[in-house]
Amino acid sequence: MKQLLLVFVFSICLGTQAQTKSELQKHYEAFYKEMRTQADVAGVINALTHLNVIAPSKDRKDTLAYVYANDNQHLQALNTIGIEKNDTDSDLAVQVKAISLKALNQPKRALEQFEILFSRTPNAYLAYELADLKIQIGDSPGAETHISYGIENSKEDMKYAFYERQQPYEVPLKAAFLHLQGLVSYNKDKTDIDGAVALIDQALALAPNFNLASLSKQALESRKNPPAASTETEN
């Protein structure tokens, strides 16, 4: 009789626990929808975190990582989904890893993720990221391949945003590639500064507001014409 009673009580406890879990999941699903409606990022993160504890889901974890990355919380994004190269990752997960690793100044690891994205859906924007990262790690031939692809596939209405100034700005994507081409040209032959500057001038012709290209041009010209060494005047 005692054994039957224990089984009965245990069954009730399990049923109550399952009901509580179901109710919690419904609560946080409704909470998540409301936070999205209000554009409350902290609330969305809170809801998704609770949902991942209550009912773990790879898709939901990828979404949480994306929300973190979109809010510039890149370390939290990578802590959520990891940094490993995984060909079975969703496009969203690979995108989060790529942009977060780039933001955290991990060009080699970011490059792996961008290469996966490019192999799945080649486009000029991904080609730019690949070229930029390959310049950073000293792979000029690899960068040239992506620059050629990017220039060929850049449309007039395609823009790329830069954030090195306090006020972000956009330039034609082709101009961005021409700037990279100038940098690669200099890296390959540091004696041909005029050739590199000529390519950057083409970028500036397309985008006179291209501040980063202007800075690169100034840096190159300063190498060509270094300031004269100061000399002490004789009394």
Summarize the structure.
The protein is mainly alpha-helical. It has 11 helices and 2 strands.
List keywords for this structure.
mainly alpha, disordered C terminus, 235 residues, elongated, 3% strand, two-stranded antiparallel sheet
Would you give an account of this structure?
There is one protein chain. This protein is mainly alpha-helical and 235 residues long. It contains 11 helices and 2 strands; from the N terminus they run H-H-H-H-H-H-H-H-E-E-H-H-H. A two-stranded antiparallel sheet has the order 1-2. Helix 3 runs parallel beside helix 5 and helix 7 runs antiparallel to helix 8. The longest helix is centred in the N-terminal third of the chain and has 36 residues. The C terminus is likely disordered.
Beta-strand content: under 5%
Task: Please state the structural category.
Answer: mainly alpha
Largest sheet: 2 strands, antiparallel
Strand order of the largest sheet: 1-2
Mean of residue pLDDT? 89
